[in-house]
Write a structure and sequence with these properties.
32% strand, globular, 5 helices, alpha+beta, 8-stranded antiparallel beta barrel, 12 strands, 26% helix
Length: 244
């Protein structure tokens, strides 16, 4: 049974907020953890939040490696529309004030699920998500979405789920929810998120091995190069009272 500290979703939607800053990291991290995240934890649908930085993991060969800076990932059960309206309200009313050292505009993305989550036994045994690491793989494709989705869910993700440390994988697309005002929206296409327990070196090594050996074959309808990002945790996972 999954720990009470690990939320289980009926409809997992995500909000990504990437940012850079001009102050020292300690000041920035303290503001995020002590002030900013608590301000949004009572927003409708909120299940939890966590901060991430680009990992030291070497990119996979042949990809376009992205770096948008510090990432705050907010996870919601259900539509993020209520979350968006509450954050917008707090910003406009002055209840939420962003420090001068935050470099604007931020890059942001609302994402909706286009697959069910894939879990490993390790996920079921996880006591918390504090040490989860993330691999993002953005892609675009030719042809119909049904063929693409069938390949991803029935072939590609199952191959990767065998990699060391795998916890969960799920596919997302840009949400229909309107971006927050003043942000620079990110749209790199379809997004597959892979979560591991601990660092991503074993994950990277296994995926590279499968690609080099020919065990993993990417169909002709995939449009290279793919955009990717390896991320390491920079904070614990903050779970909302609603998700507890």
């Amino acid at each position: 049974m999954v720990s009470a500290k690990v939320p289980v979703f009926g409809d997992r939607n995500l909000f990504f907020a990437w940012s850079t800053y001009t102050t020292d990291y300690g000041t920035y991290a303290k503001w995020y953890d002590d002030e900013h995240i608590p301000q949004v934890m009572d927003a409708p649908g909120m299940a939890g939040a966590q901060r991430f930085l680009i990992a030291d993991t070497k990119p996979l060969p042949g990809v376009r490696s992205l770096d948008f800076g510090h990432l705050a990932l907010y996870e919601m059960d259900g539509s993020p529309q209520g979350f968006r309206e509450e954050v917008k309200r707090k910003l406009i009313s002055g209840d939420m004030v962003l420090p001068d050292y935050m470099v604007q505009p931020f890059q942001a993305l609302f994402a909706k699920p286009v697959s069910e989550p894939f879990h490993t036994e390790r996920f079921a045994e996880a006591e918390n998500l504090d040490d989860r690491h993330l691999f993002f793989a953005w892609s675009r494709h030719t042809g119909d979405d049904a063929t693409f989705g069938k390949w991803y869910d029935e072939e590609h993700i199952p191959q990767i789920m065998s990699a060391p440390g795998m916890l969960r994988a799920q596919r997302f697309e840009v949400s229909d929810v309107k971006p927050l005002p003043g942000v620079s929206p990110v749209d790199e296409g379809h997004l597959a998120i892979y979560e591991t327990a601990g660092d991503l070196e074993g994950f990277r090594t296994e995926v590279k091995r499968q690609l080099m050996s020919g065990e993993m074959v990417l169909p002709d309808f995939m449009i290279p190069p793919f955009a990717t990002m390896f991320l390491k945790p920079a904070s614990p996972f903050f779970r909302s009272d609603r998700g507890a």
